[in-house]
Amino acid sequence: MNIHEYQARELFAKFGVATQPGSVAFTPAEAEKIADQFKEKIVVKAQIHAGGRGKGTFTNGFQGGVHLCDSPAEVKELAEKMLGQVLVTHQTGPEGKEVGKIFVGEAVDIEREMYFAILLDRATSAPIVIASTEGGVDIETVAEKTPEKIVRIGVNPCLGLMPYQIRQIGALLGLSGPLLKQASKLFSALYKLFIDCDCSMVEINPLVVTGKGELLALDAKFGFDDNALYRQPEILAMRDKTEEDPREVAASDFALNYIGLDGDIACLVNGAGLAMATMDIIQYAGGRPANFLDVGGGATKEQVTAAFRIILSDKNVKGILVNIFGGIMDCNIIATGIVEAARETALSLPLVVRLEGNNVEAGKKTLAESGLTLITGENILDAAQKVVAEVKKAA
Ligand code: ADP
Ligand code: MG
After folding, report:
1. Percent helix, strand, coil in the chain (nearest 5)?
2. Where is pLDDT greater, at 300 or 263?
């Protein structure tokens, strides 16, 4: 799960991570009111779950999702141009994201922009700090063109981020004296936040040194471990479903493991491993999967019906492959769910089904007696080839 920058700032306040003051506005009038409290320049930032806002473009042609203003009146005018518009950045995809809220804060006089992130390193199963003197720019570009400018420091989760590591990072970022002291406080606070809130990622780009000699986090991108959300009610309350793929929101409501992709062959599978193998084999047979979907080992008829509804809500889908190997899963529950969902949605797309395992005979009987036109796959490869052929034929 991700959160907005303004929500991340609420966590900053709670954990003592230094940043500049400001708050969120949903209307131009609110934006103007917030801006009133700032004496100098004001920053206005579109709040969407994507980075690269500064260099983004609105679909109406207006440039930039991050702006500096001189007066509250100018902030209001800008808010009118941004709110309700769709912003496209290199992280949103070409469809962009609608801006429903903006952050209005105090602009700071930036002397130097750096990069600081804490991630979960899957190779070591431990947190890792990534820092660079090259902040404010796309870190992927830095990694590609000047990899030597990025440092990685692994953290032992039992010990936490140690003072010597903080000094090491500080030195690499060229921070000394009072700035190193501030860095020590900021990095420790951020590490505590990362652990306490079950984050999978905390990215500060840019971390800045101001003209007044302050070290501040000016941007914040957070990711959280979905499996830990049950013990993070405060974080879960920050979820903004309008920022998520509606198919994935519907799937999570039914506890289905679904990830939307951009192909045209939907698949419904039990077990994550088999679901991945099914996507591979669709690709191998010359097709492109429209999703990853694991209904789990003990799916109910309601979950299977919901899964079908989600699959069919995707307008790109031109064919469906059901691949079930019933171990714990009862094939007849899948079959009943398919029949119900197909009736409910007046299914007209080609449907290939491969059922095997627990209670398969009853499942096949349910399908055969349903009157549905479906194609039977003898095995996983045969099923994939058949669905690909059907989709190609229809095109
Ligand atoms: P994004 O990464 O989505 O483009 P950022 O919050 O990083 O958004 O903002 C982009 C750039 O705007 C920053 O790199 C920084 O140069 C500038 N900026 C952001 N916040 C402020 C601020 N409070 N004062 C001055 N400049 C800012
Ligand atoms: Mg940024």
Report:
1. 40, 25, 35
2. 263
Say yes or no: CB of residue 108 within 6 Å of ligand 1.
yes
Query: Does residue 41 contact residue 69 with C-beta atoms inside 8 Å?
Result: yes
- The DSSP string of 327-390 is SSS-HHHHHHHHHHHHHHTT--S-EEEEEEETTHHHHHHHHHHTT---EE-SSHHHHHHHHHHH
C-alpha separations of 147 from 69, 111, 128, 217 in Å: 35, 23, 16, 23
Pick 110-236's CATH classification: 3.30.470.20, 1.10.10.10, 3.40.190.80, 3.30.450.40.
Answer: 3.30.470.20
Q: Is the CB of 137 under 6 A from ligand 1?
A: no
Kindly report the CATH number that applies to the domain delimited by 246-394. 3.40.50.261
The response to whether residue 91 sits with its C-beta less than 6 Å from ligand 1 reads no
State pLDDT tens for residues 288-322: 999 999 988 778 888 888 898 899 888 899 999 99
Mutate to test the pocket of ligand 1, among 41, 47, 66 (most ligand atoms within 8 A of CB): 66
269 and 278 Cβ atoms separated by less than 8 Å: yes
| Rounded distance from Cα 51 to ligand 2 centre (Å) | 6
Looking at domain 22-106, its CATH architecture is 2-Layer Sandwich (3.30)
**pLDDT for residue 140:** 87
Residue among 5, 6, 30, 115 flagged as catalytic: 115
Element (H, E) at 244: none
Looking from the CA of residue 105, the nearest atom of ligand 1 is 23
pLDDT tier, 252 (very low <50, low <70, confident <90, very high otherwise): confident
Is 6 one of the catalytic residues?
no
Ligand that comes closest to the CA of residue 106 = 1
Task: For residue 115, indicate whether it is catalytic.
Answer: yes
Domain ranges of the chain: 22-106, 110-236, 246-394
Mean pLDDT score, 207-216? 97
Q: Are 88 and 60 in contact (CB under 8 A)?
A: no
The protein residue whose alpha carbon is closest to atom 10 in ligand 1 is: 54
Q: Tell whether ligand 1 has an atom less than 6 A from the beta carbon of residue 206.
A: yes
